[in-house]
Specification:
The structure holds 2 protein chains of 2 kinds. Chain A is of the alpha/beta class. In chain A, 45% of the residues lie in helices and 16% in strands. Chain A is built from 11 helices and 12 strands. Chain A has helices at 24-41, 61-70, 89-102, 119-123, 130-145, 184-193, 210-222, 242-264, 271-278, 289-302, 319-341; strands at 4-9, 45-48, 76-79, 82-83, 107-112, 150-152, 160-163, 176-180, 196-200, 230-238, 285-287, 307-311. In chain A, the strands form 2 sheets. In chain A, strands 1-2-3-5-8-9-10-12 form an 8-stranded parallel beta barrel, surrounded by 8 helices. In chain A, strands 6-7 form a two-stranded antiparallel sheet. Chain B is an alpha/beta fold. Chain B has one domain (7-224): NAD(P)-binding Rossmann-like Domain (Rossmann fold), CATH 3.40.50. Chain B has 8 helices and 8 strands; from the N terminus they run βαβαβαββααβαβαβα. Chain B has helices at residues 16-25, 42-48, 57-62, 97-100, 121-128, 143-146, 168-181, 210-224; strands at residues 7-10, 30-33, 53-54, 66-69, 88-91, 133-137, 159-165, 183-187. Chain B has an 8-stranded mixed beta sheet, with helices on both faces. The relative contact order of chain B is 0.14. The chains are: A alpha/beta, B alpha/beta. At the A-B interface, α6, α7 and α8 of A face α2, α4 and α6 of B.
Chain lengths: 342, 225
């Protein structure tokens, strides 16, 4: 079995040494450095998730990915995720097929919603139309990925009649995943449209997603699709020791969840809930390389996945802390997970 | 199995399968339905909700003693109130504009807590389902935690879940359901009192012990006094 291991960022606005937030621009430049360093550390994939907030100032991750592409050779580069519902699938395809050209065939996309909704009012979409928007646009994106002229008609964008969409892909296609957060009907849709499955597991016990991998496998069979891989995306932070990783991560985690909690009206996390999530049955991978590697290996196996992406960073963590996470993840965690998985 | 109450869970998204699995584990016969053909959810049912029966919504509801509404609130307008006439309906939905967008029909219910302004989302649901006994329940613990935190009665780690409704017999049945699937039921009173369970309220997104739950609700009430 071939396993691949990635890092994802949302462009989390970084903290300076004195605790004040860096500018959006400096954060983006740092993300580019982190992507370049991820390749040197031995990471297989670097993903940037689309966000539109002051604490995740990363609405055009593909531009940052192109900068990383220019300075790297092997690492695969993609979105994590692209909010397809509030974008134009033709445009998303063009941006990532351009990235594929720039990078010599290293582009990927993960399409989904993420847990953020700010792109809907920003681009004039109604969140209540989410399902129809996603379904139609994912269907069109699947057509675009096949290459060749596209004919398509729907309610959410102008129809296409035998339309040649450029640039053409050299290798015919690029990997495309649909991100799923726990709705089994989204798993069925990914299988039906011929996407790979990205399980975003950000809270609660990861093992509950094992049935989703099986559902995906069976649904692919039912729709006459070939086998496709399953990816697990979860947040985490790696430092020399468990204690250090938790001490760095917890205050920032508390802050960002409190921010989101205030925006959305739910309770802020307690240290007890954090301990549960960082424990063996939780969704956070926070600890020493050995702790994180053991947990990744266990969940990759339990969920039948062949790819794991660690969403690193949080608003307020420093560039140095993130570079340490990347170094430890690439040089120690990934080799250790490969050992554990045999 | 001491209870023969039959459940119909409407919704096979994030929430419906979780409630269905918990009810099956508690010994309830469970049917699950969406707006469409049961064949479309046959594979989901087999693998994700083993033991449930995928059915047409009308058939599932006709045979059910308790109907659980676990659909996105913006689809609620598509539900035929006539289908649910005479039924006990558990409203597990939330009006959560920050997460799901603004719905004009529910704007009066924005905000949680027991504030007297406006109307609870379940009261708006109940006004539309005026032939049904609506109980607000199972809405305030996240679907990603609801199963993991369930514990049998008497377990030292058992948590609490609130419910509210105007029909005492319906409230009693849903309290029993809540207790059997793994939470100490907290009866808050009439449906209006269920506002305390909404997003922005003191227990939304929280998984609290009975004592913590009662304290949170009490402090919320005092802060408004």
């Amino acid at each position: 079995m071939t396993y691949t291991f990635g890092l994802d960022t949302f462009g989390d606005r970084e903290g300076g040494a004195d605790g004040t937030p860096l500018s959006h621009a400096q954060t983006i430049r740092n993300v580019v450095e982190e992507g370049v360093f991820a390749e040197q550390a031995g990471v297989d994939f670097f993903g940037i998730g689309e966000h539109h907030t002051d604490y995740f100032p990363m609405p055009a991750g593909d531009v940052a990915l192109a900068a990383i592409a220019a300075r790297t050779e092997k690492i695969r580069l993609g979105s994590a995720v692209t909010v397809l519902s509030s974008d134009d699938p033709v445009r998303v395809f063009q941006r990532y097929s351009t990235l594929d050209a720039v990078s010599g065939g290293r582009a990927e996309v993960i399409l989904g919603r993420g847990s953020s909704i700010e792109s809907f009012p920003l681009f004039g979409y109604d969140l209540a139309d989410y399902e129809e928007l996603f379904d139609e646009k994912a269907t069109l994106f699947a057509e675009l990925l096949k290459g060749g002229p596209v004919t398509w008609e729907g309610k959410t964008r102008a129809a296409l009649l035998n339309q040649d969409v450029v640039p053409h892909l050299e290798s015919g296609s690029f990997p495309a995943w649909i991100g799923v957060g726990g709705n089994p009907q989204s798993v069925i849709r990914a299988a039906r449209l011929g996407f790979s499955l990205a399980l975003a597991i950000i809270g609660g016990p990861p093992s509950r997603f094992a049935a989703y991998s099986e559902l995906f496998r069976r649904a692919l069979e039912k729709f006459g699709q070939p086998p496709r891989p399953v990816l697990v995306h979860s947040p985490g932070h790696v430092a020399a020791t468990d204690e250090q990783a938790k001490a760095e991560f917890w205050p920032r985690w508390q802050e960002v969840i409190a921010l989101v909690a205030e925006e959305r009206g739910f309770a802020i996390p307690t240290e007890a809930s954090f301990d549960r999530e960082t424990g063996p049955d939780g969704a956070l991978y926070v600890g020493s390389p050995e702790t994180v590697a053991t947990k990744i290996a266990a969940n990759v196996r339990a969920l039948g996945a062949t790819r794991f992406d660690l969403k690193y960073g949080l608003p307020g963590l420093t560039h140095d802390q993130l570079m340490t996470t990347i170094e430890l993840y690439g040089q120690q965690v990934i080799p250790r997970v490969r050992d554990l998985l045999g | 199995m001491r209870n023969e109450s039959r459940l119909a869970v409407l919704g096979a998204g994030h929430v419906g399968p979780v409630i269905a699995r918990l009810a099956i584990a508690a010994g309830y016969p469970v049917a699950i339905a969406t707006a469409g053909d049961p064949d479309d959810i046959a594979l989901i049912t087999e693998l994700v909700i083993p033991g449930a029966q995928p059915r047409w919504a009308s058939d599932a509801v006709a045979d059910a003693d308790i109907v659980v509404l676990a659909i996105p609130l913006h689809r609620f307008g598509e539900v035929d109130p006539g289908l649910l006439t005479g039924k006990l309906v558990v409203d597990a939905m939330n009006y959560w504009p920050a997460s799901d967008g603004v719905l004009a029909a529910f704007e009066a219910s924005a905000g949680g807590g027991s504030a007297g302004e406006g109307s609870g989302s379940s009261e708006i649901v109940a006004r539309r389902l005026d032939g049904s006994a609506v109980v607000k329940a199972l809405n305030h613990i996240g679907y990603h935690e609801l199963e993991d935190r369930a514990r049998p009665a008497g377990d030292a780690d058992r948590r609490a879940s609130g419910l509210a409704g105007d029909d005492p017999a319906a409230v009693a049945a849903v309290a029993e359901l809540t207790g059997r699937i793994g939470y100490d039921p907290v009866r808050l009173g009439r449906l209006r009192a269920g506002r305390v369970l909404q997003p922005g309220g003191p227990v939304f997104g929280q998984v609290l012990t009975l004592a913590e739950f009662e304290r949170a609700v009490h402090e919320d009430a005092r802060s408004l006094a």
